[in-house]
Amino acid sequence: MPVSEPTATVAPEYSQPGARPTPWADVVELLRTAELYWLSTVRPDGRPHVTPLLAVWRDGRAYLVTGAEERKARNLAANPAVVLTTGRNLLSEGLDVVVEGTAARVVEPAVLRALADAYADKYGPDWAFGVGDGVLTQEAGEALLFEIVPSRAFGFAKGEYAQTRYDLG
């Protein structure tokens, strides 16, 4: 279910005086167009794990792929809590976004096909996938597709500093 307009609150203690919330549409545009994201998961022993990856934002959800034996897939099997971040690595301009949520495997053929197409549209032919039995496929092997259902997000506007919290769930 897509999020239309979540509740947005500026944190005055972390923002310039009189700062206004960053519009949710700006956050969605960044999530939709970013090329690189950072995924934070929790290892079974409780230690954090962070890795860069490619993702697709669609209908209020983030989607990511990973091999079944990769650390992030094993972490998600034990604990589905995640943080996904993206933005600009600059201090004085741009927008950084942090999305907190829960990840779940996607195995429905129609959703797998739609996301395979979305990856190819966004990232080009090197990221073209086929659809197998509950997985995406490439010459290199099979990939699991995960959907991140967001519960909260934060926007960190730079330049005119404003930290905005969005309650999504």
Summary of the model, kept short:
The protein has helices at 24-33, 71-78, 109-123, and strands at 7-10, 37-42, 48-53, 55-58, 61-66, 81-86, 95-106, 130-131, 136-138, 141-157, 162-167. By secondary structure, it is of the alpha+beta class. The longest helix is centred in the C-terminal third of the chain and has 15 residues, at 109-123.
CATH superfamily caption: Electron Transport, Fmn-binding Protein, Chain A
* Average pLDDT rating: 95
Cα shape:
globular
Order of helices and strands: EHEEEEHEEHEEEE
Question: N- to C-terminal separation?
Answer: 11 Å
The profile of the biggest β sheet is:
11 strands, antiparallel
Uncertain regions: pLDDT < 50 for 5+ in a row? none
Report strand %.
35-45%
- Number of discrete helical segments: 3
Quote the CATH topology: Pnp Oxidase, Chain A
Q: CATH class, please?
A: Mainly Beta
Tally of individual domains: 1
Return the structural class. Answer: alpha+beta
Helical coverage, percent range? 10-25%
Structural commentary:
This protein has a single domain (7-167), classed as Pnp Oxidase, Chain A, CATH 2.30.110.10. The protein contains three helices and eleven strands; from the N terminus they run βαββββαββαββββ. The chain has helices at 24-33, 71-78, 109-123; strands at residues 7-10, 37-42, 48-53, 55-58, 61-66, 81-86, 95-106, 130-131, 136-138, 141-157, 162-167. Strands 1, 2, 3, 4, 5, 6, 7, 8, 9, 10 and 11 form an eleven-stranded antiparallel β-sheet that branches. The longest helix has 15 residues, at 109-123. The N and C termini lie close together (11 Å).
